[in-house]
Amino acid sequence: MAANNQMEVESTGDSSAPQTDVKRYDRQLRLWGEDGQARLEASNICLLNASATGCETLKNLVLPGVGAFTIVDGKKVDETDFNNFFIDEASLGKPRASATVALLNELNDRVKGKAFEVDPVHLVNTNIEFLHPFNVIIASNLPEETVQKVAQYAWNHNKALLVSRAWGLVAYLRTVVPEHQIIESKPDNPNDDLRLSTPWTELSEYAASFNFEEMDSAEHAHIPYVIILLQAIEKWKAEHGGAVPSTMPEKRAFKDAVARGAKKSTEENFSEAYKTAHKAFTPYSIPENVRAVLSDPKAKNITPNSDAFWILAAAVREFVENEGHGLLPLNGAIPDMHSTTEGFIALQKIYGDKAARDVEAVASRVKTLLSSVGKPLDWIKPDQIKKFCRNSQFITMVRYRSLEEEHNPQTAKKDLIASKLSSNKNDNIVWYIVLRAAELFNKKVGRYPGSDDAHVHADVEELKKYVRQLLDEFGVSHEHWDDIYVQEIVRYGGSELHTIASFLGGVTSQEAIKVITGQYTPQNNTFIYNGLQSTSDVWAL
């Protein structure tokens, strides 16, 4: 794995692993590219507990080609396991870990799956170092006490942990990663990096070289809208003392002036310029998420322990403060536009050349930083620097809270929980409360509420006690609580419905892929799905 993500992806240990199967993985390569696929194929996943949810999660990781996975499970298959599509009747009485691994391995012959036939609770209590080779750990339907131990180990060793539980018609997912760095956040609607409000010399000179008046109709109809806007904004500034449009009337007047430049109403390039006129007068600004990264103490204080992400961030910060004159490195890409092929290529070259110069400037600062902390000058590769620069307007970083912080009464997000419950007792946060209470019940009684038909009524009353205990802890009045949620959870009896398990497995695998590839922005940090109403919420708890 490239060193630009603090969470190291550890090798599966097979140096002879085949190259990426481009034909097999064609669709996903379009999503996360060769680098993302390489990280996926280098990953090593551990699933604690071969539940239906856990196996559905692995299915969605095996198909796109994770490097390897291990299932830790000490149970023998019985009839209650037939909610799991990776269990068949022939597996009755056999180790559940081996049975599920066998079927999961059939999905992708490039992935190496192993079974470890040990109770995951026992393993965590006696040999938690077993988890060391894995970079992603998935804990599915495990007791909270065990999850807490795994979470502490994963946090201390900088490993990603995904905690999932499907309970009747309710699902829970918690992502636990100390710090997740994202270079390719890939927003749904990324802004073009055209710099029309802050053009550099070569772009300004190229735009000024166009003489609209001397062009014939065909040439005039193919002027790139970038050129149209650059000339229009320069003319506006010359007529307004160097100021750009700032009020709504001025902005409308500028757009109207752009539209009047067309010789015919059918000129698409002028229509494009009219629609994108705001790019010429909107002041350049560095996105807040990027500012947060560049101003982070880790980007200002580089040490021998700094990883590649923070060294690159530091280099870009220095670039912005010096050569960049307050601007990030240019992306270099331009969108499609109505233009001749020659005109588009010429414009593309101007943007590409400027982007390349910015990369060179950042690369020089990277070498200086590496030298200052005693690292080899090639410790960060040119491709990494280029990738970071080209995506600099999209970089972001998520710092999660640990499970210990979430569950500690002194550091819990009491105000958030209290406000949700007080303002709307039907908020999905109620399921979070009841699931937490069910774990307290299990710790005390030794089983989950509703799992024994002979004690259903007593379980309802007992679970209410733990709910009230949590409400008191969060400072919420009991009057904002409806016991119907307790009754519903007891009714489920800790059962795992395959429809919910399949859904949660999809969400969990999606979050795992985000963490592994370092692309897209994962949820922060607690996800609850309410299958009764088909609603979901995410809270940073």
What does this structure look like?
Residues 1-17 have low confidence and may be disordered. An 8-stranded mixed β-sheet has the order 3-2-1-4-5-6-9-10, sandwiched between helices. It has a two-stranded antiparallel sheet with strand order 7-8. The two termini are 30 Å apart. It is elongated. The chain contains 22 helices and 10 strands. The chain folds into 4 domains: 26-182 and 497-539, NAD(P)-binding Rossmann-like Domain (Rossmann fold); 201-281, no CATH class; 288-393, no CATH class; 410-492, no CATH class. Helix 6 (201-208) crosses helix 8 (225-239). The relative contact order is 0.14. Strand 5 and strand 6 (170-176) form a beta hairpin. With 541 residues, the protein is of the alpha/beta class.
Q: Going across the major beta sheet, what is the strand order?
A: 3-2-1-4-5-6-9-10
Oligomer: single chain
Per DSSP, the total helix count is 22
How many distinct domains?
Answer: 4
Q: Which of globular, elongated, flat, extended, rod-shaped describes the shape?
A: elongated
CATH architecture label of the largest domain = 3-Layer(aba) Sandwich
| CATH H-level superfamily of the largest domain | NAD(P)-binding Rossmann-like Domain
By CATH reckoning, the class of the largest domain would read: Alpha Beta
DSSP E strands, number: 10
Structural class: alpha/beta
Uncertain stretches: 1-17
Rg, Cα atoms, Å: 28 Å
